[in-house]
Specification:
The complex is a heterodimer of chains A (480) and B (443). Chain A has 480 residues and is an alpha/beta fold. The N and C termini of chain A lie close together (7 Å). A ten-stranded mixed beta sheet of chain A has the order 4-3-7-9-12-14-17-20-22-24. In chain A, strands 13-15-18-21-19-16 form a six-stranded parallel barrel. In chain A, strand 3 and strand 4 form a beta hairpin. Chain A is globular and about 65 Å long. In chain A, 25% of the residues lie in helices and 34% in strands. Chain A has 13 helices and 24 strands. Chain B has 443 residues and is α/β, with parallel strands linked by helices. Chain B has two domains: 271 residues, no CATH class; 65 residues. In chain B, 52% of the residues are buried. Classes of the chains: A alpha/beta (480), B alpha/beta (443). Chains A and B meet through strand 22, strand 23 and strand 24 of A and strand 19 and strand 20 of B.
Chain lengths: 480, 443
């Protein structure tokens, strides 16, 4: 393909960039104790929660932003960000989709995701987060029947303080890292899930995140607890409208799996990646960690990362219980000027623990991406087993793909394997497809989808379809 | 006094070169200033994340000015190999123990001090060109103490008939000493040569060897480089090896580590023109509380350059191994192939390996892969051998040796291969009684 033509295709517009005009009740930019008190008050939080936040803020003030990642972005002015933005009527939240602000529904329509239909047809309960307040929660009754608690974290703080107190911050402590501390101080919303002992959650739980009001960071806090022998599959997906200012997103996700529990956490991330010069995209600094606290527990992360200007994200598993299992399946696609530094950590603590890491990176345009992973086998983790595969595909000669896998092994009865490859799309594969009448663009999509198959297989059905479509859109015109 | 200042204080005690050229003095100052500024690396430094050198910083090391060593003792320690030999005892050149007879044609093998005395300008260009004071704190320290070393120049189209054997001996002394040798190898275009760097020590020697090597592999030159490190288990061994490769050149490195209390190797190859090929082979075998750290880097700076790496580690007792390999492909360095493999065998529950193979790739038309595995001997293989009448110890020993064999098979100097094999077999715990087996094979 002629390079000019390619250039043109690479410069495709972000199709999901639009802004819904809803009056926001936004906190003035800046971060201090007052801001935190404001957020806490808005959320009608008890005193202990405010104290918790303030302690996190104290810790954050002493920390400095990490600089070890393979990312390049201008310094963030944390005082120029507004830390709270809520749709206008927080007191008067709709109980069903009919009551939802039609403008919001319209937004979802534009995204091509008819929320109500989707929720009804797919049997998915949707806890949609529009900016910082949960707008609607469906299927609550059905879940309640099973005993599953699925609500926003703010609601959980009010309604289930004992559970929140018991688990919040036990997987990702407030002082864990710079962004986790920031999130602990100012988190505004997110989901809370508690699946009681022996319960298999009757449906897949899903949250649709969107960043909307300009200049506000979105700081979600998600906490999922799966009690003994319980199971849950959680879906998280997000798209964002086009913006010029860089929007900061620093989420914290904590998963706790007790004995024999199984948590499956799937993400499709499509934040606005910025324009062709990388201007205006989302900065996504996420701390996700799962704690396999019980024996024979299992946590599985699956992620499809196509958006954001900057991605800094390492969903991890602490394999504490004996025979526990951690999985990480990831597809990361970067185009334009996107930068992604992502990967996982598998910390083997218990005996007979197993982990699998499959990471597929696709870099196109002038993007840069890095896989950064850690597999750590502690001395008492006998018979621990890890298999890691991370492959990179390069499309175009201006992109970069990097691999930094750390392995720290101190047990001789364990087995750790790592494989990584980097290559471009084979000319022969392209030729093969084209000689059979498939145009170059489709051929590339086919090959890339094939490349990612191992990961897509792990996604729930609806997500798998969406992910494939997203991939095609992201890579549109990047054929080299 | 110990620490940074303690080391710098030794500069005053150093033997003065006769009429030291001014550029050397400037380099020395630059090195000392740099070292003073950065100090010893700590574990917050990503390059030293797994290696703690505070044991070195805490120690006080003197300098020595004599090269007295018993000839018979040396004969028993060194490789039985027909080669052009230069011997350094605690960093001091010994003409008596060296043997450069028969060296003729466009080749020069001489101690650095001599080269500086006779024609220092000729050395000026090469010294520190690849491995400058800012490469690491230890390189800066080496520059500050530059005095002795080996300089080997192989002329254009010369195929050296015998290897050049650089032997560094570390003596057991009442007070530990430090040496900062500098090795410069210039392989002229279309030349062929084998260089053997060999580090040995008396039992109980607890000195610091901080060597910096700079290797220039010119157009179409073939250079094979063995670095065999068999220092005593109390010795500190720090080595920085820098390689620069021109078009069509081929460099092969064998980095074999058996000794040292802390052994650290930094290998950096710059592949500057098309069709340069770089092969890294490595083996490290740690026992007791040995700490072995290998950092390798290959920079593909030009299109159609090739690298291949295979490092194997065997760790027993409470030994700790570190491997960090980087393959870096620069923008526009297309059609590069880079492969990297690191396999580790843990023989004890208290042994540890920290490995990090890195790829840094900025070009798309490339083929790169890396793999690393860590595990133990295959129990099925042990079973298979035992079913055929071998006892368990023998079976495990043989499998361990076979694991090392993947690297040793590529060693073209039988004496080196045998020496390492024996060391691995002999150093294996008693239950691996392989000495007889190796000897039987030998006979």
């Amino acid at each position: 393909m002629a390079s000019e033509e390619m250039e043109q295709l690479v410069r495709r517009e972000y199709t999901q960039g639009f802004v819904t005009d809803i009056e926001s009740d936004t906190a003035p930019p800046g971060l201090n104790e007052d801001t935190i008190a404001f957020i806490s008050k808005k959320k009608e939080e008890p005193q202990w929660m405010l104290d918790w936040r303030l302690e996190a803020f104290e810790q954050w003030k002493k920390m400095s932003e990490p600089d070890w990642s393979h990312l390049d972005y201008p310094p963030i002015d944390y005082q120029a960000i507004s830390y709270f933005s809520a749709p206008k009527k927080p007191e008067d939240r709709p109980q069903s989709l009919d009551e939802v602000d039609p403008k919001l529904l319209e937004t979802y329509e534009k995204l091509g995701i008819p929320l109500h239909e989707r929720a009804a047809l797919a049997g998915v309960a949707v806890d949609a987060v529009f900016d910082s307040v949960s707008v609607t929660t469906t299927f609550k009754d059905k879940l309640a029947e099973a005993g599953v608690i699925f609500c926003s974290i703010s609601e959980a703080i009010r309604e289930h303080p004992e559970l929140v107190k018991q688990y919040l911050g036990t997987v990702v402590s407030r002082g864990d890292n710079f962004f986790a501390a920031l999130n602990s101080a100012v988190f505004t919303d997110g989901s809370f899930v508690y699946v009681p002992e022996g319960v298999e959650c009757p449906m897949e739980l899903s949250t649709y995140f969107r960043i909307n009001a300009a200049n506000t960071g979105q700081f979600e806090r998600t906490l999922i607890i799966c009690d003994k022998q319980a199971q849950v599959s959680y879906l998280e997906g997000c798209t964002a409208p086009q913006r010029d200012e860089n929007q900061l997103h620093a989420a914290v996700v904590e998963l706790v799996a007790l004995d024999d529990a199984y948590i499956k956490y799937s993400t499709v991330q499509n934040w606005y990646p910025g324009d062709e010069d990388g201007k205006g995209g989302i900065y996504n600094f996420v701390t996700k960690r799962g704690d396999c606290r019980g024996d024979r527990s299992k946590i599985s992360w699956t992620q499809v990362e196509t958006g954001s200007a900057i991605t800094w994200k390492y969903p991890s598993c602490l394999l504490r219980g004996d025979d526990s299992v951690g999985e990480f399946y990831s597809v990361a696609v970067t185009n334009g000027r996107q930068q992604a530094d992502t990967g996982t950590k598998m910390i083997h603590i218990g005996k007979n623990t197993k982990s699998t890491i499959v990471s597929k990176g696709i870099a196109a345009g002038r993007s840069d991406q890095a896989y950064r992973g850690l597999v750590k086998i502690l001395p008492r983790a006998e018979n621990a087993r890890n298999f890691t595969q991370c492959d990179s595909l390069l499309i175009g000669d201006q992109c970069g793909a990097h691999t930094f896998p750390y392995q720290e092994i101190s047990n001789s009865k364990s087995m750790v394997e790592h494989e990584a490859t980097t290559s471009k799309i084979g000319e022969d594969q392209l030729f093969y497809c084209q000689s059979r009448g498939i145009n170059e663009e489709d051929a590339v999509n086919m090959i890339v989808n094939g490349f990612c198959k191992d990961v897509f297989q792990e996604l729930p059905m609806e997500f798998a379809v969406e992910a494939e479509a997203l991939l095609s859109v992201t890579l549109e015109g990047s054929v080299g | 006094m110990t620490g940074v200042q303690g080391f710098l204080d030794q500069l005053g005690a150093r033997k003065q070169l006769d009429a030291e050229p001014s550029w050397i003095a400037a380099r020395r100052q630059a090195g000392a200033a740099r070292f003073e500024a950065v100090g010893f690396p700590n574990r917050k430094n990503e390059e030293w994340k797994y290696t703690d050198v505070s044991a070195i910083a805490k120690q006080q090391f003197a300098l020595t000015d004599n090269a007295d060593f018993d000839r018979a003792q040396l004969d028993a320690m060194m490789l039985e190999i027909d080669a052009y030999r230069m011997v350094f005892v605690d960093g001091v050149f010994s003409a008596e123990l060296s043997s450069l007879e028969g060296l003729e044609g466009d080749v020069s093998v001489e101690p650095l001090s001599q080269a500086l005395a006779s024609n220092h300008e000729a050395v000026g260009g090469a010294l520190g060109r690849l491995n400058n004071v800012d490469f690491s704190a230890f390189s800066a320290l080496n520059a500050a103490f530059t005095a002795e070393g080996a300089i080997v120049r192989i002329g254009r189209r010369v195929a050296l008939d015998k290897p050049v054997y650089l032997l560094f001996v570390s003596r057991k002394q009442d007070a530990p000493v430090m040496t900062h040798p500098r090795v410069i190898i210039e392989a002229g275009s279309q030349s062929e040569a084998t260089i053997i760097e060999h580090y040995i020590g008396e039992e109980g020697a607890a000195n610091l060897t901080n060597v910096v090597s700079e290797l220039f592999v010119e157009k179409a030159a073939h250079l094979v480089h063995y670095k065999l490190q068999e220092a005593s288990t109390q010795e500190f061994h720090i080595a920085s090896v820098h390689i620069e490769q021109a078009r069509d050149s081929h460099y092969r490195s064998f980095n074999l580590n058996l000794g040292g209390s802390i052994a650290r190797n930094d290998l950096v190859a710059e592949l500057n023109d098309e069709n340069a090929v770089c092969d890294y082979y490595g083996l490290f075998f740690g026992r007791g509380r040995q700490h072995m750290d290998n950092h390798t880097k290959v920079h593909h700076n030009a299109p159609r350059t090739y690298s291949n790496e295979n490092y194997k580690g065997i760790l027993d007792d409470r030994a700790r191994g570190v491997f960090n390999g980087l393959v870096h492909i620069k923008r526009d360095a297309q059609q590069v192939r880079g492969y990297q493999n690191n396999a580790n065998l843990l023989l004890s529950d208290r042994a540890e390996i920290d490995t990090k193979p890195e790829l840094l790739i900025y070009a798309d038309d490339v083929l790169c892969s890396h793999g690393t595995t860590t595990g133990q001997l295959d129990e099925r293989a042990v079973f298979a051998m035992r079913a055929r009448g071998l006892d368990e110890a023998m079976a495990r020993g043989l499998l361990t040796l076979a694991f090392a064999g993947e690297v040793l098979d590529s060693v073209n100097e039988p004496n080196i291969a045998l020496r390492v094999e024996r060391a691995v077999a002999g150093k294996l715990p008693d239950r691996f009684n392989l000495q007889d087996l190796v000897e039987a094979q030998d006979a």
